[in-house]
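Holo prediction — GLP.
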Amino acid sequence: MRLIISDKNIGHLAAFFIKERLNAANPTREKNFVIGLPTGGTAVDMYKNLIDLYNKKEISFANVTTFNLDEYVGIPKDHKESYHTFMEEKFFKYVDIDKSKINIPDGNASDLLKEGRDYEDKIKKAGGIDLFIGGLGENGHVAFNEPYSSLNSYTRDKQLNTNTIIANSRFFDNDISKVPKTAMTVGIRTILETKEVLLLVTGEKKASALKHLVEGAVSQAWPATALQFHRKLVVITDEAACNELRVGTYRYFKKLKDEFSHLYA
Ligand code: GLP
């Protein structure tokens, strides 16, 4: 695990990280670079920075295939808070991505189990996910793998827990009755099978979840802890989210030099 701690523009750092990986892969029409994409407040600034890099011609999405991590069940695709709408409005419509290469789980599929299996098949057919980008829920969820999710799970529907419904009510007029109670989400096993994971974790509210992720024992009570088994996990985080880390842990990661040090030193 790598923890990159910076108070300088996390979105810029994340976008730069993606640019490095994407350009190094040198994708072609035949061999696309496959990215897992998140929604959520933390990701918004990353998308702004990616659009900026695209406009400066430093990056292209022409040979990129995307798989979104999750989608609500039971709201129309064109609902203003659906993840389909989020992705279109915050990112896709500004870049050169081929629409046929965009994959987002269908939260309105008549058979959600089949939808989950089909989604996994599509990931396999695309050659697996090269870079999975995610956030972290206050309760330790990643994508919508809520506490007590199987750590061996693949894409399926999941009931959201109260903490998540309250946290996400800010997007639904602060009215928890308007927040969908179920979502389709990639599983923990889906994430573990990706080639590299980048997590973006910011703010005091995530401090407890980050502590569990970095220092805690692997537990289904904090599903993100399963990522400790991933061979290539990078977490970009700010000072506030580190509030509950042990001083020694914090110092260890602050001292490590990595290929991105020049961006946040
Ligand atoms: C949401 C999403 C996750 C996201 C997380 C954090 O509910 N399902 O994919 O990473 O919670 O969101 P935010 O960045 O808004 O805190």
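READOUT: The beta strands are 2-5, 33-37, 64-68, 70-72, 102-103, 131-134, 156-159, 182-185, 197-201, 233-237.
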